Automatic annotation (TrEMBL):
Domain of life, source organism: Eukaryota
Alphabetical list of InterPro entries matching this protein: Papain-like_cys_pep_sf, Pept_asp_AS, Pept_cys_AS, Pept_his_AS, Peptidase_C1A, Peptidase_C1A_C, Peptidase_C1A_papain-like, Prot_inhib_I29
Record flagged with keyword Disulfide bond: yes
Organism: Caenorhabditis remanei
Keyword DNA-binding among UniProt keywords: no
Protein name: Uncharacterized protein
Record domain Peptidase C1A papain C-terminal: where: 176-389
Lineage: Eukaryota, Metazoa, Ecdysozoa, Nematoda, Chromadorea
Protein family: Belongs to the peptidase C1 family.
Keywords, ordered alphabetically: Disulfide bond, Hydrolase, Membrane, Protease, Thiol protease, Transmembrane, Transmembrane helix, Zymogen
Domain Cathepsin propeptide inhibitor: 89-145
PANTHER family per the UniProt record, alphabetical: CYSTEINE PROTEASE FAMILY C1-RELATED
GO molecular function per UniProt: cysteine-type peptidase activity
Matching PROSITE patterns: THIOL_PROTEASE_ASN, THIOL_PROTEASE_CYS, THIOL_PROTEASE_HIS
CDD domains, A to Z: Peptidase_C1A
Amino acid sequence: MHSGSRCYININGKIRQVSCFYLFFRNFCFGVFFSNRKYPNGYKTCACDYAVIQMLSLVVLAVMLTLLGLFVYQLFDSKLEKQRYEQMFNDFILKYDRRYPSLEEFQYRYQVFLQNVKEFEAEEAKHFGLDLDVNEFTDWTNEELQRIVYDNKNVKTDGSEEVRFEGSYLESGVKRPASIDWRDQGKLTPIKNQGQCGSCWAFATVAAVEAQHAIRKNQLVSLSEQEMVDCDDKNNGCSGGYRPYAMRFVKENGLESEKEYPYSALKHDQCMLKQNDTRVFIDDFRMLSQNEEEIANWVGTKGPVTFGMSVTKAMYSYRSGIFNPSADDCAEKSMGSHALTIVGYGGEGEAAFWIVKNSWGTSWGASGYFRLARGVNSCGLANTVVAPVIN
């Protein structure tokens, strides 16, 4: 029976009052049509207003069609996304000449690639103007990525080289330029590649010494990182090193040319330094202030300097823009420590940056270089800045 907005049904011989709306959906869920059909026990469904029933039916239909549409869209979008990633991987394989030994390795590397791409795309979305992209590291696992950086725990220091230079970084009457890029002066050797060896400390040191030698002696010579990897006993070859020790080594032993002592991305059992070969020496070195304005004074007037920083995973995928990881990411998501060379500085709008030379080859970053946020001690950049001195 039906009365107003309430319905009455017979349940076990007793008349019960219920909501017609409730009863409609109850009957709908049990597949009962609103046509006054008899149930086996003989009672009738409520005679709800047909227009209301029709409206509710349309609402249900609309909801079902909407859900179906969303499902089809997500299915189609997921298919397009899958095709995009597969095409990216195919392009990657062709560009970097990847040749996996088995189908299992191919599938494994694709999953690693996919995870890395999704991670850097999510990171890129958080930082306006930062471009992260596929490069030769995109199919590397985290463990493989960590091989080209080092753990500070492996580097032992005695504190003997940690006295900071407190003198004037600017000569009397000299002002540093508003910006500088020592590449424009022709004082830098081409980008090098350390390979899967944690020898960044040697590459950073050599890059700064090469530049200082070119600035002071007007001779640009590519020097040997392998010499320090093999012969500097205070450092740890492919397992990291301390740049003040490396500078001390160059001061006392000099560096052969890269041509005379070429790089092999591993530590040999013996030092193969030839006593009669021509070498480049430095007269001294300085550990600079942690004040980035003072560091800029030195770079702008004297030349490139070395520094160390914590590496976040996003850095491996850097392509362009100003890299400015958060302090939390540097502290909590560090992959290890890395040594590099500051070769200039500048600004973009209100954002100040360092121009940094890396040792990961030309396919990484902006042809081997990147811009790092200046004035915020990005990932500990200013903590240990070491500069060579040639009189």
